[in-house]
Write a structure and sequence with these properties.
two-stranded antiparallel sheet; single chain; mainly alpha; 100 residues
Length: 100
């Protein structure tokens, strides 16, 4: 459980935070105030998906020498990147009070 930055009660589950992106805002069920995540940290936490997908695309194209191989490598790289992004997002991206 994650604490609300306003009322400091544990109200947000793991999956609620994972589904909360930098432009997404949700409300606390206790204090009904808006809660978000910082834009920069959320994007840094998502970098393993992008980087490993690109590496997978180039590796897949090199191994199978086809567009389908590049696509398969990209998908595998993105899936591996998700395995790294989830714990990184959990540890590195806090819940914050949105500015607006």
């Amino acid at each position: 459980m994650y604490a609300c930055p306003w009322c400091e009660r544990n109200t947000f589950s793991f999956w609620q935070k994972q589904s909360l992106g930098p432009i997404g805002i949700t409300r606390c069920v206790n204090c009904t105030r808006r809660v978000g995540v910082p834009w920069g940290r959320a994007h840094v936490a998502a970098l393993p998906i992008l980087v490993l997908a690109l590496i997978g695309m180039y590796a897949g194209a090199g191994v199978w020498e086809s567009a389908l191989g590049s696509l398969a490598g990209g998908v595998l790289g993105a899936l591996l990147g998700m395995l790294l992004t989830v714990p990184l997002y959990h540890r590195y991206v806090p819940l914050i009070r949105p500015r607006s």
